[in-house]
Each structure stands twice: as C-alpha cells, then as structure tokens.
Amino acid sequence: MAKRKLAGPKKPAAKPQTSAQSTGNQQGSKLANVKGRAPRLLINDEDEDNEDEDEDGYIDDEAEEAEEDELEDESDLEEYDGEDGISEQFEGLLDGAISDSESEDNAGDEASEGDGEENNAGEEGIFFGEDVENEEHEDVAEVITNSVSDDDEEAEYLSKYSAASEAESLSSISSDQDDSMVAYYTTGADGKPRPIYHEIDPHYSSDDSDLEDMNTIGNVPLSAYDEYPHIGYDINGKRIMRPATGSALDSLLDSIEVPEGWTGLIDKESGADLKLTKDELELVKKIQLGENAGDVNPYESTIEWFSSKTEIMPLSAAPEPKRRFVPSRHEAKRIIKIVKAIREGRIVPNKPKVRPEDEQPVYDLWADDLQEQQPHVMHIPAPKVAKPTNDESYNPPEEYLPSEEEITAWNETDAMDRERDYLPRKFSSLRTVPRYENFVRERFERSLDLYLAPRVRKNKLNIDPDSLLPKLPSPQDLRPFPIKCSVTYRGHKGRVRAVSIDSSGLWLATGGDDGTVRIWEVLTGREIWKATVGDDDEAVQSVEWSPVKDSGILAASAGEKIFLCLPPIFDDETEVTGQELLAAGWGYAAQPAPVEHINKERQCNWIKPSTKLASQGVDVVIVCRKTVKQIAWHRRGDYFTGVSPDGANMAVLVHQISKHNTQSPFRKSKGIIQRAQFHPFKPMLYVATQRYVRIYDLSTQSLTKALQPGARWLSSFDIHPQGDNVITGSYDKRVTWHDLDLSTKPYRTLRYHTRAVRDVRFHTRLPLFCSGSDDGYINVFHGTVYDDLLRNPLLVPLKVLKGHTVVQSLGVLKVAWHPKEAWLFSVGADGTAKLWTS
C-alpha cells in the first residue's frame, strides 16, 4: 500500500501569511496557551483527510479512496470533499483554537468541556470598553469541537504541540504591554486574566510609499498556487479564490471587444487581467512619443533673466576717463613700426596669394573622357546658326535659281533691305565653288551677337486667366435693366444734342442742331410741343426740366441765351404755379431793356422774351456773354448753373429765379471748365475741368477736394444719389469710378468703348449707371454702393445697347434715365432719340 507524507503536522510558518494573518494566529495561540490546550492544526489541502493516518505519519491511499467512494453517495459530499474537506469548516483563522493539556488521551471529549469553561469564563469576564457580544469565543469553541480527533497518534502530536505553544504564549505576555491595543480582559480557564484585542484594521497607513500593497501570498510566487482554486488568504484567514476564467468563446469576444484599459497581460500578484488607468495610459503614451513623463509644462512662459531691451541710460554716471580721449603712446609706437616695415618692403599689404606649382590645376585638352562641367543655373545657351537650305547648295534645283529680272532687282535693292544676302548659283562640281565672300563678315557679326546681345531668361507664369477675373454675379440676377429699344422719336433735322425727362416721367424734352426744342409723349413717341429758340440755326446745347414738382419749367440754352419756358402741355394749375415762380423775380431785377440795348457790363441780363417767343411759351430770356453749353438745376429748383467753357472767370454762373439774379462764384478760372453740378443734398458745387473734378463747399466758400481721374480731357461727370461716389467720362475712351471716402484717384477704370465717351449718368433710384460713346454704343452697368464702409462698391457690366448710327464720327451724344423705371433715353448724331426698356 502506497504511503505519502502528511503535510498537516508541519509548522504553521510554512504557509505564507500576511502581517495581519500572522497577528491573528498569534492571538489564537495565546488564547490556547492561556487555557492550557493545544490547537489542532489544519492539514494541507491535498492531505486534509487525516483519519487514515498511520503511526509513522503516512496516509493509506487505498483506505482514502474507499472512504471517498462512500462519501459520494451521501448528501453532504460538498462538506467533506477531498480538496475542501475540513478546510471549509475552518475558513477563519484558528484564533483561540485551545486544547486542554490535562487530558491528551481523550482530546475530543475534553475539547468540548473546554468550550464550556471558556464560555463561562467569557460571561464572567471584566469589560474595559463597550459591551460587545463575544462571538469570537463561540467560534473558538466550535472550532475546538470539530477539530479534535480521537486518534491516538494525533493526540500524541497535539500534546507535544500544546506544550511548545504554551511556552511561546507565556513568553509573549509581558507586564508592560500597551493597554491601548487591548479591548478588554477576561478570566481564562487557569484563572488568569486573558486580554481580548481590537479587531485588526487592514488599512495600510505607512508613509514610506503611496502604493497600496495588494500582495496576499508574501514572497511566494503565484505559480505555487497553480494547482489550487485559491491564490492566498485575506485578513480574516479566508481563502481568496482565483478569478473565474471564461471559456474560449469569452476569450475570443474579449479579444475583439477590448475593454477600456485592457492590456492583454495578467497581474502576477492578483492573477486577474492587468488593466491600466487613464493616468497610466497617458504616461505610457508620453513615453512612446518621447515626451516628458512628469507633470512638466513644456510651454512655460519665458523668464528674461537678462533684459532684451537696450538701455539708453548708462549704469554709472561717472564721467569718462581722460585716457579715452588721449592717444595711446603704446599704439603710436606700434603704428610707427608697421609703417616702417611697409616702407622697407617687409610687409606687403593686400598681397595676392600665389598657389604652389603642385596645386595649380592642370587640364588635359586631348582627353576623350573629360568630365563636362555643369552649366550655371542662369546660363542661357547661345542660339544656333540656321542650317543651310536648298538654295544654298552648289547645285540647287532649277526652280531655286533666280531669273534675270530677279537678279537685276536684287542688285538694285539696298543691302539692308534685301531678303537674303546671296543669290543661288549653280556649279558643275564642288571644286569649282569659289570662296564665300561674306564668310568673314558673317562670322564677325555672329561674334558680336554672342558678345553684345544680352540673353535674358524669361520666367513663364502658369496662371489660369479665369482666376484673374473677379467673381461677379450673373446679370440675370441683377434685373431690371434696359435691354431693347422700344420707342424711337423722329422729327429733328440734324444732330440731337440734348435730352431731359420731367419728374413725372411722362414728357421727354429734346434739343438739336435745328434750333428747336421739342417735347414728346414718352409712351407713344408723339410730338406734343415745339419751340424754335435758336437764331440763325443756333444749336440747342442743353435742355433740363426743373426738379420742382407741378411747376412745369423747362430751361434750354441756345448760343449765348438761356430760355425759361412753360410748355402748354400741363393743366391750368401747373401753368399758374410756373408763371408765379418766373414772374416773382421781376420786382428784384432792374427794369427790363429791349434786346438791342443790352448792358454789356453786367454778367447776365434777364429780359422778357419777344412776342414770337412768348407765343411759343418762353417766359424769361437770360442773355450771357459766351455760349452756354450746359445747364444744371439745384435740388430745390430756385437755382441753376450755366457753364460757358469760353467764359474764363465767368465760365460758371449761378442764376436765381426768385430774384432774377446772377452771380459768379469764382474770381479766377483754373483751366477750361467743362461741367458743373450741385450736390444732391449738401451745399457743395462740383466743377469739372479738362483734367480735374474740384469740389467746393458753398457754406465755407473753400475747396474741399480735387479728384484726379487721370484723363486727358473730361467730357462729363455725374454724382451718385448718395453723394459719396462720382463717375466721369472722357474723350480718351475711359469711364472712371471715384469713391470719395477712399481716395482722390479712381477706384475703377472702365475701358469698354472704342471711341470718345460723351456722357455718363446715374439712375436716381436703382443701382444702375450708363455711358454713351461716339462708337454708337451705350454700356449699362450695375453699381451697388454699400452702407458698410469696409465694403467696396460692386460694379458689374450688364448690357451693350446698339441702335444709334455713327454719323461723321459722332454717335451717342446724350443719355438720361427715367425717374422711376429702369428705362433709358438716348439721343445721337443720327437725328433720333430712343427709349430703351427692360
């Protein structure tokens, strides 16, 4: 029969324990020694069943197997398992496992009696602290009752162990024991006081490390517990079971769905999966990236230990020492020595360095494998000579040989004007070819070309032309604007130079070279009224309706006269209002004089019209000294300007209807004045000369700004209804846009016309403006002005209106916008006026 060594009787120190567990065992041994009983020790897991142990300390394997077979049929198999067995009944520490030393032979019976005595002693114990139930003693009694065996061999062993443990327990009790560790005292079985200690606090409170020790098996490696279901013991002596491991499917799922902090490693201390916290993962990430693993801010602000600013004031206010201003004698002696050495030739300043003969480069001119040097980056190779053609052959084909006429013409042509410097000739053989007479000259010119003619490398820019164009909105999104000719007004003889639309938008006034002023009905194109104001076929230069509603006053200029008319096309109330406005000034003016007795000393004379003119509807005639080219009304309708480019200092005259008064705002003229116009709502006067547009403040009588369009000769200009932008047209085919808040130079220059620009106009309500030119075209633009000063105006070309005929290099002469609709009126040299609608 096979025998195996019993592991239980060995010393308890062989089982690895924590400090808390060892303390509990010591307390148990002390309690046992006080009673005089020896505790029964727990046998190792694989040798728990010790009832079949023989006298030599061995267990009969066959008997053990037979006993296990009998236990399988019983219902309490789990309480007496071969692995757990007695150990499940002893899951706590064997604290207080007491064996009475008086009867070692009858250990089992005496143990139960000892429990009774211990319980009685517990009841009679003296408490120094709170009254607590002595559950610990009841557990000890139960342990002793269940752990005592009747075997003689075991009793003999227990008697020996009891004596040793009692001696150890008595030696550990001292009189100077710390009372703070004792909960209370009780009377033991021997009548002596026995201390009961506080429950052990497993909290780790050491200051030598901030890492909590999770070790439960001491220095024993975890591999020693591979065959056991547990991996150590807790503070109460109970087993710490191994964490449950899943099946192969669970392992596969864990590998697919990786939990947070999972590393795939096993903790050697606890046996569970090793999971890292967020701080530990961040630390590993920093180490992988080569960053500083500590709590160090890499972006700390710089501490300027030394100031980066240059201090102007010196650190010391002491005066400069005298030696800094006195020449040094030592330096003077050294300079004298150096000068003497240079004169004697011992020192040669700026001496070129001469290479030794062995260091001078040597080149092999006849080497076949000579390495070619790389050309410079900016090197440009010389152009190659053109290869000879067929006519330069010594035996060219017959079609290349010149005829007698060609030879004569070539000889008579100057050498600089010849297409080629030679004449093709034919020779019978190569030996008969003479020397080329231009060879030396051509080689010399070739050398001059290579030497004197500079070669420049041009950098080619790969730029998409479409990317240079500004991104503009589609014209379809900017409607309405005029796109077609709807009505044509015919009746003038010769050129039509002037056009104007009244404030109601119903009546159109035109003036032409035939000296007539005509009024048309806008929608039908029918002529309503006609007046001949020009003498001796004087052309009507300008016509303008008064901006005052329900006044019906029309101003027209022909020659040196300005005519204020009241066309009989309005109702009686409008005619009466207009006559009152024109007649109110006769009381302020001087006595009217006949036309033949005009006072030449005055700037202008206000006279009543003749009977012929009065019958046509003319009420007032203003006679000026020079031809009036342009008329512009003030917004209130009481003032209007007349521009006479030949008038010098009286080129611009301001006329007042209510007082029949005329005044000249300028004493001296700066250039030839072309146009003059009032600001839409400010007391300002804009005057355009050939090159500049000057802005005058009438309230302060001063010049505020001078615009520089950059044109050679301005033809016209107009002011935006908001008053902050101006467009100009010039005879050099330009249209310029000026932003007064931006600069005096043009914001945009539009070059869409091929001939001189005659007139430009803003729409009073819509964001539209146009330009008319001698090429017969009218360009319509969209111009949006934003209230935000940070945004520039938006200019978009919309439409080119074609319909006027160019006559004697003159095309469109004047344009005007409808006051309400997106309609445009134009007149030209072809004697017609046109209405362009959307």
Automatic annotation (TrEMBL):
- Compositional bias segments (type: Polar residues): 17-30
Please list the GO terms describing molecular function: large ribosomal subunit rRNA binding; ribonucleoprotein complex binding
- Could you tell me where the Acidic residues compositional bias lies? 44-86, 101-121, 130-141
Q: Where in the cell is it found?
A: Nucleus, Nucleolus; Nucleus, Nucleoplasm
Transmembrane regions listed in the UniProt entry: none
- What residue spans do the WD repeats cover? 489-530, 812-838
For this chain's UniProt record, which GO biological process terms are given? maturation of 5.8S rRNA from tricistronic rRNA transcript (SSU-rRNA, 5.8S rRNA, LSU-rRNA); maturation of LSU-rRNA from tricistronic rRNA transcript (SSU-rRNA, 5.8S rRNA, LSU-rRNA)
Query: Per its UniProt record, what Pfam families does this chain match?
Result: BOP1NT, WD40
The segment annotated Disordered runs over 1-177
List, alphabetically, the SUPFAM superfamilies matched: WD40 repeat-like
Specify residue ranges for compositional bias: Low complexity: 158-175
Entry annotated with the keyword Ribonucleoprotein:
no
Going by the entry's taxonomy, the superkingdom of the source organism is recorded as: Eukaryota
Q: Which family does it belong to?
A: Belongs to the WD repeat BOP1/ERB1 family.
Purpose of the protein? Component of the NOP7 complex, which is required for maturation of the 25S and 5.8S ribosomal RNAs and formation of the 60S ribosome.
Please give the PANTHER family that the UniProt record associates with this protein: RIBOSOME BIOGENESIS PROTEIN BOP1 (PTHR17605:SF0), RIBOSOME BIOGENESIS PROTEIN BOP1 BLOCK OF PROLIFERATION 1 PROTEIN (PTHR17605)
Binding partners and assembly: Component of the NOP7 complex, composed of ERB1, NOP7 and YTM1. Within the NOP7 complex ERB1 appears to interact directly with NOP7 and YTM1. The NOP7 complex also associates with the 66S pre-ribosome.
Q: Which protein, by its recorded name, is this?
A: Ribosome biogenesis protein ERB1
